[in-house]
């Protein structure tokens, strides 16, 4: 059962914590852990250990039992040694991240995080994840490095920034939890998810699918569409209007060529993200068929070409089109 007041209090505390972390640990390309960015606190087992040690100390003091006092001090010394070893197990780690491979909306962005120790020390029982409920344990051997992957859900197109993540350890005794929240500068381009367009290519062009979208000023009759505000009246098909079938505009297309052009302004009316999803689908289809294709977004244009690099440039342009930073 969720209590609204408690949820708001947690959200408030989480916001304050994030703000404090943003000031103390801003985004950096590389981070080496030290006493300024490592935090340590007793774990659940640690609090139980301290409680038992405290009770033994109080009992030994009340009953003047030297054995109990000696045991309490020994446990206290053991706790201090545990704090030192736990802290040293995390200190000195160096973290670096790289940009994730581009993905489509809905696919997980996989950010690689590299960990090593410049001094070559080994580190045991480390855990990494986006939250305390999503931790994956690993060890770092001496004179070695390891790569851990962080999988982040993508919900919208654009340039995604790698989120802050959790790195912690409870080694060696499990009494102390040593953790940090690094924020490494890495990004992932999130393409619009491909959406099958409402019209097939051969409906928009010739049977060979090469006249993908019409071009104004061309001579070949292409088809009809409904009149839109701003369309010249000379293109209205008055014969169709006389048959009470509404205002229809005649469209013309360029002759079929070996190059396909995809133009945002020629797409049927729909939401921007939907139109970009159609274009994403068309780009992938053209590339899959080995066709040369171009992209025209109005403010940005890519000449016909083909290949993985051209496809990435076009898809990235779709991802960044009128997009605010994430």
TrEMBL record:
<feature type="transmembrane region" description="Helical">
    <location>
        <begin position="67"/>
        <end position="87"/>
    </location>
</feature>
<keyword id="KW-1133">Transmembrane helix</keyword>
<keyword id="KW-0472">Membrane</keyword>
<feature type="transmembrane region" description="Helical">
    <location>
        <begin position="38"/>
        <end position="61"/>
    </location>
</feature>
<protein>
    <submittedName>
        <fullName>Uncharacterized protein (DUF58 family)</fullName>
    </submittedName>
</protein>
<keyword id="KW-0812">Transmembrane</keyword>
């Amino acid at each position: 059962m969720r209590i609204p007041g408690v949820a708001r209090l947690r959200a408030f505390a989480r916001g304050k914590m994030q703000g404090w972390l943003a000031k103390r640990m801003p985004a950096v390309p590389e981070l080496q852990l030290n006493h300024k960015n490592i935090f340590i606190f007793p774990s659940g087992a640690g609090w139980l250990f301290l409680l038992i040690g405290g009770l033994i100390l109080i009992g030994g003091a009340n009953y003047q039992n030297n054995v109990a006092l000696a045991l309490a001090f020994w446990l206290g010394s053991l706790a201090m040694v545990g704090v030192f070893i736990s802290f040293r197990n995390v200190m000195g780690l160096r973290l670096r991240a790289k940009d994730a491979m581009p993905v489509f909306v809905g696919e997980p962005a996989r950010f690689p995080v590299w960990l090593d120790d410049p001094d070559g020390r080994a580190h045991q029982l480390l855990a990494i994840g986006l939250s305390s409920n999503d931790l994956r344990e690993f060890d770092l051997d001496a004179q070695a490095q390891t790569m851990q992957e962080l999988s982040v859900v993508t919900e919208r197109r654009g340039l995604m920034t790698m989120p802050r993540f959790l790195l912690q350890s409870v080694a060696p005794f499990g009494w102390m939890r040593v953790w940090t929240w690094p924020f490494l500068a890495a990004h992932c381009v999130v393409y619009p998810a491909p959406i099958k367009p409402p019209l097939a290519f051969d409906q928009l062009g010739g049977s060979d699918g090469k006249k993908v979208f019409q071009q104004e000023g061309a001579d070949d009759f292409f088809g009809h569409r409904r009149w839109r505000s701003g369309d010249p009246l000379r293109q209205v098909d008055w014969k169709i209007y006389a048959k009470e079938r509404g205002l229809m505009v005649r469209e013309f297309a360029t002759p079929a060529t070996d190059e396909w052009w995809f133009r945002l302004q020629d797409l049927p009316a729909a939401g921007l993200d939907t139109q970009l999803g159609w274009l994403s689908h068309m780009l992938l289809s053209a590339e899959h068929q080995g066709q040369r294709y171009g992209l025209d977004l109005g403010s940005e244009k890519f000449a016909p070409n083909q290949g993985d690099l051209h496809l990435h440039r076009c898809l990235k342009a779709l991802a960044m089109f009128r997009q605010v930073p994430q």
